[in-house]
Amino acid sequence: MTIPKESILLVDDEEAIRCILNKGLALHGYRCDEAEDGEQALAKLKINPSELVILDINMPGKPGSEVLPDITARFPETAVIMASGVTDTKVIAKCIKDGAQDYISKPFRFEQVLQSVNGTLDKRRLALEIQRYFQDTGRGDKQKQVESRKLFMGAMESLVNTLESTDTYTKGHSQAVAKIALTLGQQLSLSSEELEDLRWAALLHDVGKIAIDPDILNKPGELTSSEYRHIMTHAVIGPSLVKPFVNDRVVAIISHHHDHYDGGGYEQHAKGKDIPVGARIVAVADAYQAMTSDRPYRRAMSEMEALEEMLWYSGSQFDPIISNILIKDVQQSGCRRRLKSMGANN
Ligand SMILES: [Fe+2]
Question: How many angstroms is it from 202 CA to the middle of ligand 1?
Answer without folding.
Answer: 10
